[in-house]
Amino acid sequence: MRRITRIATVGVMSAALALSVTACGETSSSSSSDTSSDSKGGKTAIAYDIGGRGDQSFNDAAYAGLVRAQKELDAKGTEAEPSDGESDADKVQRLTALARAGNNPVIGVGFAYAPAIKKVAPKFPKITFGIIDDASVTGDNIANIVFNEEQGSYLAGVAAAKVTKTKTVGFIGGVETPLIKKFEAGFVQGVADTDPKVKVVPQYLTQPPNFDGFSKPDLGKAAAQGQLDKGADVVYSAAGLAGSGAIEAVSKAGKWNIGVDSDQYKQEGLSAYKESILTSVTKDVEDSVFNLIKSVKDGKPESGEVRYGLDKDGVGLAMSNPAFTKMTEVIAAVDKAKKEIIDGTITVKSTP
């Protein structure tokens, strides 16, 4: 039986009402006590980032971790979707409702949840709060799940520099934030170290506080077209749902895409363009979500910084496209770079 409840929360009242319904038709009370959680993690909740589930990227990777926990740990999951133009106060209300409903852990997908978790976590000390892609907010009951995105992006830069025929490659960042700049930094360095003659054309879709660059495919499509017009024949998009628009444009132009977060070659929503997706810079968000849920269920909840890098296969390059795996020279260069990053011969920058 499917045991994931999907809700869209707007304000305290609607959140509480939505959370009172489970997939099996049962109800759960919304106690304000911090002891309302199941200490063994029988119930867990994910609050999605901008773009929500179905982005074929970051949020979907988190969802995969929840599904795995449902199958392997018999966890009952609740999903909470973001609303357009929401504030930090909306996120506080959402997380509070999820905690009061007895979910443990409660996981915020994305750095945008940092202010809300900072406010909510101290009020529920017996509940573990996970936040993905942020280490700024700390606490005894907070697990900071972070990744070395720059390392995986470096490998993408190596591949792009090896594959390009025009000596021009593109980088599309969704929103110009320190996190996305890590992707750019690694990619640019990987390209430069592999072939200094290759030019990288970077572009960001929006600037904070406008986060449409993570959610609007048309922005990604327009940016990709601009990069194609400048001669780019490989485009790496780190833009969440907006990246799907870039993938479409690059695919229709017969050029190479590099995806992000999930193995986008395998994403059903991108199947029409999969042959153009050379590889993807993967972040093991799926395992990180599963591991946090399991730690709570086992009575040893993760807390503090939980880092995933190349050394733990927490980031890397997807090898699903047969066209990519047949490029023996490219794969050899990628493998060499991976080894040198892990052994410390190469230090990858986290800022451009």
UniProtKB/TrEMBL annotation:
UniProt domain ABC transporter substrate-binding protein PnrA-like: residue ranges: 49-343
Major subcellular site: membrane
Signal peptide, first to last residue: 1-23
A GO term from the CC aspect: plasma membrane
Segments of this protein annotated with the region Disordered: 25-55
Keyword Cell membrane: yes
Pfam families per the UniProt record, alphabetical: Bmp
Compositionally biased intervals (Low complexity): 27-39
Record bears the keyword Lipoprotein: yes
Xref: PROSITE patterns: PROKAR_LIPOPROTEIN
Keywords: Cell membrane, Lipoprotein, Membrane, Signal
Membrane topology label: Lipid-anchor
InterPro entries, per database record: BMP_lipoprotein, Peripla_BP_I, PnrA-like
Subcellular location: Cell membrane
Family: Belongs to the BMP lipoprotein family.
Protein name, entry field: BMP family ABC transporter substrate-binding protein
